[in-house]
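Hi R.,

Here's the chain you asked about this morning:
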Amino acid sequence: MTTLAAAAKALVKKVTADIVLDKESRSKVLIFIGSIAAGMLLLLLAPIAVLSTMADIKPPSDNELHFDGAEYLSQLTPEQLERINETEADGSAIAEAMEAKGLRELTIKAQLIYMTFFENKRLPDFTEYVGYFSLDNEKLIPALNKRYGLNISYEDFMRTYTWVMNATINEYLFTDSKTKNAADLAAWCRNAYDSGWGYANNSFGKRTGDDRIRCADNVGLVMGYIRYDAEKKEFTNDTLNLIYTTRGDIDTIPDIEGVGVYDGSQFGVYIGGGNVIFSSAMGGVQFQALSEGSWKSWCTFRDVTYPEIEKTTGA
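And the predicted structure, written out as tokens:
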């Protein structure tokens, strides 16, 4: 068995065990998980995805040694295989359109809505569709409902979307997955806030506890980004300590996403637009205006590169 196949099978088992939503939401999530997979992972996950709507296919045994992706794929009819191929093609097309629109971070949101609610409204082109994702969630859902004749419940969608985003690390976060850079640190923190990360001591982004929610303590929010290997999609222990350099008082902070802020006991990450994200025992990962906090200084983190600062200071 290849390493990729073994990893995919482990993921299938984990996803199956972790899904605790109601039946309708669970079905939508399973379909979505299959829709964004690729290559061998797609072949192994796709049979699981279609279980929610194709009653003639039995789920795999709880014993993962008996799970054969090719065997389950062989049970699909030509029509079912065509559906999977169309789903994969649409997911890829949406990803390309979102990147062209400068909305790469929101790719999974666009894919999830389309795969879940456009089953009978397949679009020939995604240019107009992806344009709506520049709107915030409260405006996005009504706009899509009106334009495409949908009936998406904002509350139901946000519950499902938050769960999906919490269950995975969004691969579309990273502008450069091979380096640790300021822009991607800011994106990491935005994703942690949007997907409802909680707080737990000595945590840096792994799912934990009975509810299987991703958590990070205050230092762990930044350390999680530094430790996360986006190529292998796993956390490492290579970096043990968060080392930072104070650059100036808070009133001198540059408008650069990913610089740190510090109040003497807690760190936050500036994400642009005058806003900060940080993790606290008082509420998990939180968002606030820079002016609302008690931040005293701004800083940079040793293991994160800051190209704009390095150009001007040489440090």
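The chain has two domains: 3-167, 178-313.

Let me know if you need anything else.
M.
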